[in-house]
């Protein structure tokens, strides 16, 4: 979700709003937090632990907006939450531009300005589950795997180099797909599901749109409920600018069209609700 933004708003405005969660209400806060640690875990992939009170209300599938120190860049970068602990959270992100490249240089003790937790997370069900992550959609699956108390099949797809795989396998049966066939199934996550004849009663997925489209089709064919986390370019991150809408079956109360705001109404949606 660490994308280049496409709109502008007043970064200095003190933002303090409430957003309706699927199960309750949680406050969003903008604060200057502290970097606890950071390490490179794969090519252009970094893992950062942040000490923050935001962790107290964060849920799997939500994200935070991270602000740069460059006055010329008014907008923050949205990054998915990978792990949540009492007073700290972890983000795992890919360098995708100048903003995330700046973040990769942060060290323990550095200040980092963040806003969150943002968006709706995954609604958890006590059913046999697939947790499907592709590329930079893998990190949100880790906290979800930790919190789900059910039988879990974790299916992750990479181009070639792996990351977070050893941590994920602590919380469920792990299946890996790589495009080059260097590890696990050669192909994508759907190829791994078919190769191992895996079954589930509910699906949670995060990754690129072609993967989510395939997950939605699979879920429909097998009559399985699927929750998908969508990646999109964002601007404000709080639903005000309509810069990250997706097409939906139902009319949105805010825009009065068949759109939903990924940053606020999502990023997690019922797969049947959105058009891919």
| Average pLDDT score | 84
Percent helix, as a range, is 10-25%
Distance between the termini: 17 Å
- SSE sequence, one letter per element: EEEEEEEHEEHEHEEHEHEEEE
Stretches with pLDDT under 50, minimum 5 residues:
1-26
Q: Which structural class fits the helix and strand makeup?
A: alpha/beta
Q: What spatial order of strands do you see in the largest sheet?
A: 12-11-10-9-13-14-17
Beta strands, count? 17
Q: What would the principal axes of the Cα set say about the shape?
A: globular
Largest sheet: 7 strands, mixed
Number of helices: 5
Share of residues in strands: 25-35%
Backbone CA Rg: 18 Å
In short, what is this structure?
The protein is of the alpha/beta class. The protein is 14% helix and 34% strand. It is built from 5 helices and 17 strands.
Description:
The structure is a single chain. This protein starts with 17 loop residues before the first strand and ends in a 6-residue tail after the last strand. The protein has a 7-stranded mixed sheet, with helices on both faces. Strands 3-4-7-6-5-8 form a 6-stranded antiparallel β-barrel. It has a two-stranded antiparallel sheet with strand order 1-2. With 276 residues, the protein is of the alpha/beta class. Helix content is 14%, strand content 34%. A hairpin with a 2-residue loop joins strand 3 (29-42) and strand 4 (45-51).
